[in-house]
């Protein structure tokens, strides 16, 4: 279909995907998205998406619906196989997103955008797209029994999610490639190793120290409330 005859919403979304992937989420103005999409003014963008966050949410929703469906299917298979294979669980994390490397409808751009958002200070909020529980919610629950409790305390699952997203985003930015199978297989190996890595006693000691410090900072507030209650 000629770009000029595509519905306005799809043209804006396609332009935003390419621009966000190339220049970063904060490096593109709504005016630039409007210009590249061939829309006459920003009214069309505001009508369909309201603002920048609306555009981003539409991009994530467009792709995560497919990713979610693929991951749920792999998690179903893991459950039917007994759920005890860490590499199979890692593949359920990585493979659905990796399929976007060859998605001609903005898949590689999505991977770059998703990686950028996940690696922001509040990146975990990006996971909230979709109807709960999402496939990532389910993955977190199913993989937990295969991990050491200390690894869970240190947020190893989110580290694995961010690593997978970052590597897929990097691969997408350097593509297209004729064959991604070796890359994806190696990435599954790497993420499996991250999830299975031993937590050293030094790291446990530092984590305990951190938790004690956090508890100490909270305690005076509780004591102050108690004193106020006692004198009331």
Structure description:
- The protein is an all-alpha fold and 232 residues long.
- It contains eleven helices and no strands.
- Helix 5 runs antiparallel to helix 7 (135-143) and helix 5 (86-98) crosses helix 10 (181-196).
- Helices cover 71% and strands 0% of the residues.
- Residues 1-5 and 222-232 have low confidence and may be disordered.
Helical fraction equals over 70%
Tally the beta strands: 0
The ordered H/E elements are HHHHHHHHHHH
> Low-confidence parts lasting 5 or more residues at pLDDT below 50?
1-5, 222-232
Give the termini separation.
74 Å
Radius of gyration: 22 Å
Q: Biggest β-sheet: count, sense, barrel? A: none
Sum up the overall morphology in one term: globular
Residue share in β-strands: under 5%
Structure annotation, total helices: 11
Report the structural category: mainly alpha
User: On the 0-100 scale, what is the average pLDDT?
Assistant: 89
Q: Any key phrases for this structure?
A:
mainly alpha; 232 residues
């Amino acid at each position: 279909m000629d770009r000029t005859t595509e519905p306005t919403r799809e043209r804006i979304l396609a332009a935003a995907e390419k621009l966000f992937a190339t220049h970063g989420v904060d490096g593109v103005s709504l005016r630039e998205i409007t210009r590249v999409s061939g829309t006459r003014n920003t009214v069309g963008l505001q009508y369909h998406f309201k603002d920048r966050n609306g555009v981003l949410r539409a991009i994530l929703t467009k792709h995560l619906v497919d990713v979610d469906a693929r991951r749920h299917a792999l998690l179903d298979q893991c459950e039917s196989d007994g759920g005890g294979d860490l590499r199979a669980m890692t593949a359920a994390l990585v493979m659905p997103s990796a399929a976007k490397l060859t998605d001609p409808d903005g898949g590689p751009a999505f991977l770059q955008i998703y990686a950028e958002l996940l690696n922001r200070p509040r990146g975990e909020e990006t996971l909230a797209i979709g109807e709960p529980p999402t496939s990532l919610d389910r993955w977190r629950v199913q993989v937990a029994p295969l991990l050491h409790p200390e690894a869970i305390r240190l947020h190893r699952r989110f580290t694995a999610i961010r690593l997978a997203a970052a590597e897929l985003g990097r691969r997408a930015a350097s593509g297209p490639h004729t064959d991604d199978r070796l890359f994806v297989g190696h990435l599954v190996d790497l993420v499996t190793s991250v999830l299975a890595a031993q937590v050293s006693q030094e790291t446990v000691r530092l984590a305990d120290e951190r938790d004690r410090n956090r508890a100490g900072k909270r305690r005076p507030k509780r004591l102050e409330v108690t004193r106020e209650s006692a004198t009331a």
